[in-house]
Amino acid sequence: TPSRHFPLGSVMSLRRRYELLNLANETGAWIIEDDYDSEIRYTGSPIQALQGLDATGRVIYTGTFSKILFPSLRLGYMVIPPALVDAFFAARVITSLQVSTPPQAVLTEFIEGGHLYRHLRRMRSLYAERQHVLIDAIADELRDLVEIRPADAGMHLVGWLRGGLSAQVVSNAAQGEGIDVNPLSRYCIDPCRREALLFGYTGVRPPIIWRSIRELSAVMRRLRKT
Fold first, then answer.
1. β-strand partners of 161
2. If 54 and its partner were Cys, which of 10, 59, 111, 126 is the partner (CB 3.0–4.6 Å)?
3. Phi and psi for 3 in degrees, rounded to 5?
4. How many Cα atoms are found within 13 Å in the side-chain-facing hemisphere of 11?
5. In this predicted model, what pLDDT tens digit does every residue of 147-176 receive, in sequence order?
6. Distance from C-alpha of 209 to C-alpha of 201, rounded to nearest angstrom
7. Cβ(40)–Cβ(155) below 8 Å
């Protein structure tokens, strides 16, 4: 995920991208590039995808419309190096997993009509606003308990916990109040060096963001007293 690492949100530098491509070429390895939300970018220009930099056909590029449109669409795509097309086609036939034709036809018309571009432009503006609201709400309600910074892209932020609280304990308690915040430890193989929560914001309206952060603040302050 070079465009935006999940869950920390880091972006692979151009130098590191070339190093990875050179390593794949030298060892005969394949790189699977999951470009899951690179379209959701608020400032600056994204670094070119690994697939676009690949001169030796070592990158299998994957993307999805589930995040930029809606999850139930269940449509994704792959850009396969020429040397692998026959193998992937054979595997596709064996699995016999069919994707409904009408959604593909409608999506094609949607893209060709320029609607996807306009949709993404609106969503970038909307999501940027909601990110600002989330940061303001945390600064107002949780300044002493959560450290959070804005991001140039993506659909969530990482909030680093202060005050010795356990992210898993906070997540469990928040779930009881109907607030969904995942602990960073859920995505770690080894124990996390710092406790953190993941805050999604793109699908939440500003008034609900404010209300949820106030409720989360009450939960965290109760836990800190125990």
1. 146
2. 59
3. -70, -35
4. 16
5. 999 999 899 999 999 989 999 999 999 999
6. 7
7. yes
Residue 173 has a pLDDT of: 97
| Cα torsion through 39, 42, 48, 52, rounded to 10 | 10
Residues belonging to the chain: 226
Residue tagged 């949780």 (tokens): 142
Cα–Cα distances in Å, from 189 out to 15, 20, 79, 116, 168? Answer: 27, 22, 30, 37, 15
Looking at the chain, the whole-number percentage of residues with pLDDT higher than 90 is 77
Query: What whole-number distance in Å separates Cα of residue 90 and Cα of residue 215?
Result: 52
Mean pLDDT of the chain: 93
Terminal-residue alpha carbon distance, the chain: 39
| Residue-wise pLDDT tens digits, 41-99 | 898 777 889 999 999 999 999 999 988 998 888 898 999 999 999 999 898 888 876 77
Residue 125 CA to residue 101 CA, distance in Å, equals: 31
The model's pTM: 0.88
Tokens (6 digits) for 111: 């893209």
Q: Which pLDDT does position 226 carry in this prediction?
A: 77
